[in-house]
Amino acid sequence: MPERRFDAADLRARLVTRGVGALEHDTGDHVLNPDWEQLAERATAREAAVLVPVVDRPGEAGVILTTRAAHLRKHSGQIAFPGGSVDASDPSVEAAALREAHEEVGLDPDRVEVIGRLPRYRTTTGFRITPVIGIIEAGFVPRPDPSEVADAFEVPLGFLMNAANHAKGSRVWEGKPRYFYTMPFGDRYIWGVTAGILRTLYERLYAS
User: Which phi and psi (to 5°) does residue 77 adopt?
Assistant: First the structure.
């Protein structure tokens, strides 16, 4: 059996061969929590976009993630992709994801090759998030905006696309257990929506 590759070229090829039809159905928190009725209220969903920034390194690509600033009112200290709400002035979800990445980590949109999307991810807080996959040449150094981002770091794509590194966790939320994916990486705790989007990437493109 040939050795599995986790470089940018292989990711592009997987999007071409497996990406067809992958956007037909939303994914989200309801995958592990099917009894949450509020997730079916599509009319109230707010549109958001995140960039899944894949750094094109020889041998193995990396994925840039951020740690949200500790002073933020929501999701402070959590690990996330660069992203946020889609503004009325954004011509597309891709434009929104690139704008947010530029604001949060100083990533120039001209340095990003957008190669596709993942299915929209619905959250229990009423967001419908479109993950936009972008390839970045090696050499980019993140410049986090301290008003939003505490730091930015890189995780090998091969680690994130290895199901052995995926686990399921739970916490009590509004009086009932909430289930979610986790992907601990050293002293970093990747969980919730971020882990859910990465799990979707794995299921759509890398699962056998």
Answer: 75, 0
- What pLDDT score does 23 carry? 57
Please, which residues have CB within 8 angstroms of residue 92's CB and are 6 or more apart in sequence?
none
**Residue 181 located in a structural domain:** no
Range(s) of the domain holding residue 76? 8-28+39-158+192-206
The DSSP bridge partners found for residue 167 are: 182
CATH number for position 127: 3.90.79.10
Which residue pairs, CB below 8 angstroms and at least 24 apart, start in 38-44? 38/124, 38/126, 39/122, 39/124, 41/126, 42/128, 44/126
Measured from the Cβ of residue 207, the count of other Cβ atoms closer than 10 Å reads 11
Gap between the Cα atoms of 143 and 179, Å rounded: 33
State the pLDDT at residue 19: 64
Q: What pLDDT band is residue 114 in, cutting at 50, 70 and 90?
A: very high
Total of domains in the chain: 1
Which residue reads 């920034």 in tokens? 53
pLDDT of 146 over the 90 cut: yes
Please state the pTM of the whole predicted model: 0.92
Q: Over pLDDT 70: what percentage of the chain?
A: 90
Closest C-alpha among 179, 181, 193, 167 to residue 79: 193
